[in-house]
Write a structure and sequence with these properties.
This protein has 255 residues and is an alpha/beta fold. The protein has 2 domains: 2-62, no CATH class; 80-253, 2-Layer Sandwich (Ribosomal Protein S5, domain 2). The strands form 2 sheets. The protein has a 7-stranded mixed sheet. A two-stranded antiparallel sheet has the order 6-7. It has 10 helices and 9 strands. The longest helix is centred in the first third of the chain and has 22 residues, at 18-39.
Length: 255
């Protein structure tokens, strides 16, 4: 069972099972071939022995894993937030990292971000400037500090409107020195006035969070009707918190 779960998680990325079937067939063919080669010339057996394939031996049959999921931060750390993204192959966790350094107020964005995510970063920066007193951020940080936002796996294009809450949390955290809670993920777009907007692909994102061992997920309140359509089995073990405003996100996410 563990081997099959590893194949699903590390070698396939599709809604159906065709790719899984192909990989299982490949393992069976190689196993039979190896058995025939080892027993060639020996007296034929009346029964074929059983074969046990372990997860650790899969690279021998299928090669190196094709899909590696993003690492999830397991410690309370300033400036590191777990976001959730939708892809054509399902949900993914997204590690959002921010650092602060002496400078003149510039923002550097790396990780092959699309235009929408770049706009979210600009909106997050403006929100921090407007609300700096509330979160014990230096009022002149935008004159004396540069910010660098990075989302790893830079070779993979990333875009969409659901990373806004993660970016503003990363910026607020690194500027205030407050740690972000571990095992917490979030999704949602933001407005300059501090509202959290709904997103798509909620079920896939919750599945991604569960797969990564996340225990708490912040979800836009306007997505609440969709939660009733998601099975209890998927939601089991995850504390889903509905949020309307950025202030609520930061209240739940920052220590």
């Amino acid at each position: 069972m563990q081997a099959i779960e590893t194949i699903i998680g590390s070698y396939t990325r599709e809604a159906g099972v065709r790719d899984l079937e192909r990989h299982l067939s490949k393992i069976i063919r190689k196993t039979i071939k190896n058995y025939i080669e080892k027993t060639e010339g020996q007296k034929a057996r009346k029964t074929i022995p059983k074969f046990h394939i372990e997860a650790r031996s899969l690279p021998k049959y299928l090669g190196a894993a094709r899909h590696l999921y993003s690492e999830v931060n397991r410690q309370d750390t300033p400036g590191i937030v777990t976001g959730l993204a939708w892809t054509p192959y399902g949900g993914e966790t997204l590690q959002i990292e921010a650092v602060k350094m002496k400078g003149t107020g510039s923002i550097k964005l790396t990780g092959k971000l699309g235009e929408t995510m770049r706009e979210s970063a600009q909106a997050a920066h403006s929100y921090c400037r407007v609300h700096c007193k509330e979160y014990e951020i230096s009022e002149d940080f935008f004159k004396k500090s540069d910010l660098h936002l990075h989302i790893p796996e830079g070779a993979i294009p990333k875009d969409g409107p659901s990373a806004g809450v993660g970016i503003v949390t990363a910026f607020t955290s690194i500027l205030s020195g407050k740690k972000v809670k571990a095992n917490l993920a979030m999704t949602g777009e933001i407005t300059l006035s501090g509202k959290v907007l709904p997103i798509g692909g909620l079920e896939e994102k919750i599945i991604a969070a569960k797969r990564a061992g996340i225990t708490t997920v912040l979800v836009p309140r306007k997505n609440e009707p969709e939660l009733s359509e998601i099975s209890d089995e998927i939601k089991k073990g995850i504390d889903l918190i509905l949020v309307d405003k950025i202030s609520e996100v930061l209240e739940h996410a920052l220590l």
